[in-house]
Amino acid sequence: MAWQAPTDVERALYEAKSRGDWSSYLDVLGNTWLYYAVDRYSFDAVGQRRYDTYWNAQTGSRCRAVFTAGMLPAPVADPVYVRRDLETFASDWPGETTWLAVNPGSPCEAYFPGSMAHRTVWRQHGERAWRSQLRRLRTLSVGGPLHGPVAHGLACGALLCVRNGSLWNALAWHGRGYDAERERLKEHWGVTERSKWQEYQEQLIQGEMSSSGAWEFVLRIRRNLARASEGGAASISRWREVTARVARQGGREAGHEESTDTGWDEDPDDDIGFDAEVERLQDLIGRIMRYESRFRADGLLAEDDVVQSVLAWDYGRASKMARWGLGARFCELWETEQAVVRAGRESQSVYDSWQGFSAGYILGRCLHFDEEKFGDWYADMLAAHRILTTDRASPWLNIPFK
Known about the structure:
Elements: H1 8-19, H2 22-30, E1 34-38, H3 40-46, E2 54-56, E3 61-66, E4 80-84, H4 86-91, E5 99-102, E6 110-112, H5 116-129, H6 149-155, H7 158-164, H8 178-189, H9 194-205, H10 213-228, H11 236-248, E7 252-253, E8 256-257, H12 273-298, H13 312-327, H14 333-350, H15 354-369, H16 376-388, H17 395-398
Parallel strand pairs: 3-5
Antiparallel strand pairs: 1-4, 2-3, 5-6, 7-8
Helix pairs in contact: 1-2, 2-5, 6-14, 7-16, 9-13, 9-14, 10-11, 11-12, 12-15, 13-14, 13-15, 15-16
């Protein structure tokens, strides 16, 4: 039986090795990330990335082992893995007698001398090959779930995975490597310890981390109006009218409770006042309508569809936060799996399809970042959406939403 490679990278390495095409092999290495093990506790203490080597009888030399993403073991407390590109290895190498061992012990393994002349070749391959893996659907064919609740929960984070060229179904997450995963959570979320990761993970799964409660507030009013008219679309004027009235009346409309957690101060004695708040809500409705119009033009929404909810923005990030926490060693694998499954189940309670989930996620991301510029914050997600809704290997085409 032919060897089944975990990902497209290992498959390309194996094929190049089988042909004896070492130039192509190095092209593949130059176009992907390479990971190596470090002692976690010494790394945490002093930040050193010690180059551990081992004796290899095959080469008759000491070797430094590096691994492609599909060949990494499941994360454990220690050691951890950091990643670098081939050019970095070429510039920062522990002596000319040390060899580079790529995926040692596997069918796609290869060994390269680490002399200055050879490292010059590595650098050349890295310079000309880097980095076609962005905006791609990448799948872990061996070792990653493809169906079932875990796969569904992982697929809720697929938009960002495609955007970054990472493996959408890698539950045993190493991501950018231990150091970069920690830096990601510190820089973008302020997470530097397990308790803070747990807090944010739970808030995301509960749908409580959207930048403004106003987004869901106005969309919920539109949903309620549509239900009241037995599924018919609410007119824009009616949507605006009821939104203003509900906000002014502190959440009581037609005898029922309606949350007015808009994210702004609702005290009528506040200097901003209700008039200013209502004006902001009306402006938000206009923004949502303009985004929906663009979504329809670009195929994110069908002609008569609207975005039902922006909670996908939280659920999709919850799917990713579960993995980022594991990569940073703020949690264990079983916790990541539980969180991913929960994110998938919550998304199923709100949406009926991947299309609806995607539109909700992208609207939330755009309301948070894009400011109606329709720049990279939107374009990246549109490209990822199109890949996920057309590529035959996409989880969105192979995993039922419900």
